[in-house]
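User: My collaborator sent over this chain with a note saying "see what the structure looks like." That's all I know about it. Can you take a look?
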Amino acid sequence: MIKVGIVGTGGIAEWHASAFINNKNSSVVAACDINENRLNEFCDKFNIQNRFSNVDELLEKSDVDAISNATPDAFHKEISLKAINKNKHIFCEKPLAENFADAQLMCDSLKGKNLINMVNFSYRNSSGLQELCKTVQSGEIGNIFHMDANYYQSWLTSNYWGNWKEHDKWLWRLSTKHGSMGTLGDVGVHIFDFASFPIGKIKKLNSHLKTFKSKGVQIKDYILDANDTFLSMVEFENGAIGTINATRFATGYKNKLELKIFGDKGAVKIEFEDPITEGNRYMISKDTQREITVKEDKLKWDEISCPPTLTNFEKFIESIIQNKNHEPDFERGAEIQNILDKCFESSKDGKWVNV
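Assistant: Without extra context I'll predict from the sequence alone. Here is the result:
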C-alpha cells in the first residue's frame, strides 16, 4: 500500500484525496496546511488522522512514501524540492513551476534519485486523446502539415461558476501580484500539452497576450493586469504549423478543449469539456480519394470509441509499484513551462522566438 501525504488542502486537494483514497493500492495517511481550520475540515472529511501545519513537520514525523503537491503555483518548487530531498515520490499540480529556470531546477534535483515524478496535466485522462496520439504517431494519417487547438472558457462573461467580481478564488487569477500568469498560465499549460502531445516538440512560436481593461482595472486589492486571452502561431520540429489559443471570453463555452490535426493521408479531431465522460472518443477522416458528385455529399468522419485509460493519479501509483515512470513527468512539465516563458517573451517583443 502506497502511503500518500497531501500538502495544501484547498479545493483541488479534495480531488487528489478522493483519487488516492479510492485507489486499492494507495491510502492518504497525512495532510498539511498553514490554515488550521481548512486543514481540520479537510482531514475530518477524508478521515485523515495525521495533521501538520507545515511540510517539514509532515516529512519528518510521518511515514509517507509519496507527496501530492496541491499547493498554489508559487509553492510548487519549494514543496517539491523538500519532498525530493527526503526521497519521497512526488505528484505535483500544474504548472510545474512559475518559470522554466525553477522547473529545470526541480528536474535536476531528481538526478541520481530513483523517485517517481509526475505533473497533473489532467486532460491526459482523456482516453480519446491517448488513442488519437497513438494514431498520429503511428503514421496512420501520414505527414502532419497543420493543426489547430483551442481552450474556451467564459467565466468572465457568464456566471456558471459564480460572479467572478465577488469571489477571491477567481479574482486572484486576474492579478499578477497575487501570483497569476493569466489565461496562459492557468489553461495555456493544458492546451500546449494537449496540442503538442500527439505531434511532438514545438520549434518556434509567435504569441500575443491581451488583457482587456474594459472589464475593470482593480477590484479590492486585486489589480486586474493578468492576460485574459492569448493567440499563438507555432511551428513544430517536424515542420507542421498551426495555432494554439485560449480565452476566458468564449461565451457559450464552459470549459471546452478542441484539437484538429491534418496530415497527407487523413485527419483527426477531438473536443470535450469533461476528459473522461466526453473525452472517450475521437474522430478520424481518411476521405482523401473519393470524388464528390452530389452537392449535398459531405466528406466522411468516423467516430472512434476508446476504452478508459488510467488517470494521472492511477499512473502515479502504478509507476511507484512498477518502478517505471509514466508520463507526464517533471521533464514534460519543464518543457511546457519553457513554452509558456517563450510566449511571454514573444508577446513582449512582438516577434517569433525559438523554443
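A starting point for your reply to your collaborator: The two ends are 41 Å apart (CA to CA).
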